[in-house]
Amino acid sequence: MADITVIDTPRLRLRPLVAGDAGFLLGLLNEPAFLRQIGDRGVRNPADAERYIATGPAASYQRHGFGLLLIERKSDGVALGMAGLLKREHLADVDLGYALTASACGQGYASEAARALLQHAHAVLGFIRLIAIVVPDNLPSLQLLQRLGFAFECTLPAEAGQTVLHRYGIALPACNVAR
Questions:
Q1: Is 177 a domain residue?
Q2: Spatial contact of 154 and 167, defined as CB atoms under 8 Å apart
């Protein structure tokens, strides 16, 4: 695995996903909100989850030096979700992504993780722009993106069997990462 930086915030630790996180990811990737707002990743058992980690986040660490990270609460080590930077083949820019368990929503964890990732993307990785893609009815995510300083750019055309997505963009460091 490429040497991926662990990112600490006051309450959170964002660290690389490893095979031992498969059980947690199996649950997260099959939560109703994840399936509705992000999509079905076809992860149905622990072996699928391990394969998801190996072919997704771990492969991205090797290829790009970044990827999805596990979000852990520092006070007790409980896994809350995942967040990170993704380089999707069909998008020109790097994408900020995040997903939390239902029990972790509404406590500011997504905001804290996203702000840390924006700072990391600019200060460590040298990015000057990021995007985020979101389904139009995901109001909590839309509100978070707006608080961070992302602006609506366009509607992405839906492919067969997929929903319409909105693309938001932000210039770095001109974002609201300090709040």
A1: no
A2: yes
